[in-house]
Design goal:
The chain has 372 residues and is of the alpha/beta class. The chain has helices at residues 32-42, 48-54, 76-85, 99-102, 119-126, 161-174, 205-225, 243-246, 251-261, 272-282, 287-295, 320-335, 354-357; strands at residues 60-61, 90-97, 143-155, 179-183, 230-233, 267-271, 300-302, 348-353, 370-371. Strands 1, 2, 3, 4, 5, 6, 7, 8 and 9 form a nine-stranded mixed beta sheet that branches. The two termini are 24 Å apart. The structure holds zinc ion (2 copies).
């Protein structure tokens, strides 16, 4: 059988990990050496993964992408494996749905042809594809269960809100999806608020941020309020990563937007991607994160994973998801305001044999997993 090795201990092939300032061992409250010792103690067929999961402060990944449906680079099976390796109990697949296309509003979206308009296929991938009824080796006591959500990250579209509402209704109430996140990626001119290159010399940054905070974020919250399956507005601090807009964003704008959002049954997301990047670049969390930590009653958190981080493609020189999960846990621990959003959903469960899931050679196939 293949020895179990936690993913973060197998990343030494990345070369120089030393410039990553966070202590990755803190993720489970153990140093990497202690994890190795612990593993050797409990050895094979243990409930190590469950014990690891019990120590997690944040035990879900509610925001992430795949190669199958949008702009991620990893297959669903790898993401599930990664979740198990990190002791994550609940995992959502939230590939991009392009509302500008759904609403018939023709714009050149950043996500282009990668847009995810086939939720049925995702649902199939999470059930039929992973099912292996012939696998009799799976024994409950030696396996780890990951609950999986078929979700979508849908763009808010200021000009086509009724069509957006109808689309969300179709996917959640009668369609195949368990949940959705709403994100404001574009302004009303179809420019991606995260990218300076989308804004020409004649663009007015004041106007863009005003529209974003005063109109779009509150309107997106109002739509989310209509659906129990839409509980999250993702990365509201996204424009802060855009040098064209960043200097025009004030704390007051965030506070006013937060007051609006508080009227609705929705939580803002602390996005660990934008959060961690900002910390590494600026040495501090985004202003949006700080407002969330200090003034929101509660918030949720997403890693916004696009890739697992195998050698050569690694953000921050370590496993991308793991670093972001760590950042989420720091925020959750410091503030005590973190709320899980997948907990209340009725999700399919994937059972993963402990002795196979954490194989280091990535030779597992989707048939190694079983749903039940
Ligand atoms: Zn997004
Ligand atoms: Zn995303």
């Amino acid at each position: 059988m293949t020895a179990f090795r936690p993913l973060h201990l197998s990343r030494t092939d990345d070369g120089d990990n030393s410039d990553f300032s966070l202590d990755r061992g803190e993720i489970t409250g153990l140093t990497p050496e202690e994890i190795v010792t612990r593993y050797e103690e409990v050895n094979e067929n243990s409930n190590f993964l469950r014990e690891m999961a019990d120590q997690r402060i944040v035990d879900e990944l509610s925001h992430g992408h795949t190669a199958g449906f949008s702009d991620g680079t990893d297959e669903i099976a790898y993401r599930i494996c990664e979740a198990a390796q990190n002791g994550v109990k609940r995992l959502a697949f939230t590939d991009h749905g392009d509302a500008t296309s759904i609403s018939g509003h023709q714009r050149q979206g950043y996500y282009g042809e990668e847009q995810f308009q086939t939720p049925d296929l995702l649902r199939d991938a999470l059930t039929d594809t992973l099912l292996d009824e012939n696998d009799s080796d799976l024994r409950k006591e030696y396996s780890f269960d990951v609950e999986v959500a078929a979700g979508m990250e849908i763009d808010f579209d200021l000009d086509n809100q009724e069509k957006l509402i109808q689309y969300i209704h179709n996917q959640l109430e009668t369609g195949p999806l368990d949940m959705m996140l709403i994100s404001v990626h574009y302004d009303s001119e179809g420019r991606n608020v995260g990218y300076a290159k989308d804004f020409g010399p004649n663009a007015d940054p004041e106007k863009v941020v005003e529209e974003y905070f005063q109109e779009m974020i509150p309107a997106a919250a109002e739509i989310a309020d209509k659906f129990p399956g839409v509980t999250t507005l993702a990365h509201w601090d996204r424009p802060e990563g855009n040098p064209f807009l960043a200097d025009h964003i004030t704390r007051e704008m965030y506070e006013d937007a937060l007051d609006q959002v508080k009227k609705y049954d929705v939580v803002l997301e602390f996005n660990a991607k934008t959060g961690l990047r900002n910390i590494l670049n600026q040495g501090h969390p985004t202003l949006g994160s700080r407002v969330l930590f200090e003034e929101a009653d509660e918030f949720t958190g997403g890693t916004d994973t696009h890739r697992i981080g195998r050698s050569g493609k690694v953000d921050y020189k370590v496993n991308e998801t793991e670093a972001r999960l760590h950042e989420l846990e720091r925020a959750a621990e410091e503030t005590g305001k973190f709320v899980p959003v997948l907990e209340d959903l009725d999700l399919d469960s994937v059972r993963i044999p402990v002795e196979r899931v954490c194989s280091n050679n990535e030779s597992f196939s989707v048939k190694d997993f079983e749903t039940h």
